[in-house]
Design brief:
Elements: E1 12-16, E2 19-23, H1 25-34, H2 41-68, E3 75-78, E4 81-84, H3 91-122, H4 126-129, H5 131-150, H6 159-172, H7 176-203, H8 210-214, H9 219-226, H10 232-256
Helix pairs in contact: 1-2, 2-3, 2-5, 3-5, 3-6, 6-7, 7-10
Length: 257
């Protein structure tokens, strides 16, 4: 969404599993804005660290699969998210590399939730006695669950949008019709989510309907996970911007025809 992150003297660099990782200073600034609480700066810092862990794990999923297929990849964290540099692969290898990020991110959420349940069983009062610990688990679950689910929506440039584009190209063929259909789907998906979030913002409805959790999980777990809801106003603006970007690209594409 925000393009490539230029290098700065303040970038933090390190490696994991042989993969170069660069953190742009805007990642820390935008993460702090996401969790900003002037009355609890400790929670702002912890929330930014939770976002860092979640995004890093997500991008490692992409990069490790890319490396498995024989291509080097660098991870860059930037503006509440990040990207793993990639090259053009065959369709299904590209789809696996794109899907690996959300899959690994959601797996992290499952692990975090399992640890939370184990701690509650071992010491039922642990989160009452340590409310900050409860906040950390909640922020980790939000980043791991909600952010990765939203990333699967078929709107470009989200992972879901890129997977959609690869599938349209694979089954629909190449050429102008393929590009046009890809942009139309992206516009429709982003607009639908933005409109739904606008409705939720005006009616206090849940962005992620609780019935989704209730249909697959026991009541206790469904209630807890259904409470992890994104801010509808932020989501409305975010997907509105994605929709506008796709509309601009679509109009450029049509004008070149």
């Amino acid at each position: 969404m925000f393009g490539m992150a230029g290098e700065t003297p303040f970038d933090l660099r390190f490696q994991m599993f042989g993969i170069p990782i660069r953190i742009h200073p805007m990642f820390w600034a935008s993460g702090a804005m996401m969790w900003w609480n002037p009355d609890r700066m400790d929670l702002t810092i912890l929330g930014t660290l939770c976002l860092f862990i979640s995004v890093l794990v997500h991008e490692l999923g992409h990069a490790i699969v890319m490396r498995h297929y024989g291509w080097p990849s660098e991870i860059v964290l930037y503006m509440m998210g990040g990207y793993a540099t990639a090259t053009r692969l065959s369709t299904w290898r590209q789809i696996w590399s794109l899907a690996a990020g959300p899959v690994v991110g959601l797996t992290l959420a499952v692990v975090v939730y399992g640890i939370k349940m184990a701690l509650s069983a071992f010491s039922p009062e642990v989160f009452v006695q340590n409310p900050v610990l409860g906040s950390v688990f909640r922020m980790l679950l939000f980043c791991g669950l909600v952010v990765n689910i939203m990333n699967l929506i078929p709107a470009i440039p989200l992972d879901g949008g890129q997977i959609m584009a690869a599938l349209v190209g694979y089954y629909g063929g190449h050429g102008r019709k393929w590009t046009e259909l890809t942009l139309q789907i992206s516009i429709g998906a982003a607009a639908a989510v933005a409109l739904w979030c606008a409705y939720c913002n005006n009616t206090d409805a849940f962005v992620i309907p609780p019935k989704i959790f209730l249909s697959v999980l026991p009541l206790r777990h469904a209630i807890e996970l259904a409470s992890l809801q994104p801010d509808p106003k932020f989501m409305m603006i975010f997907f509105g911007i994605l929709c506008a970007q796709s509309v601009i690209e679509y109009n450029k594409f049509k004008s070149w025809g």
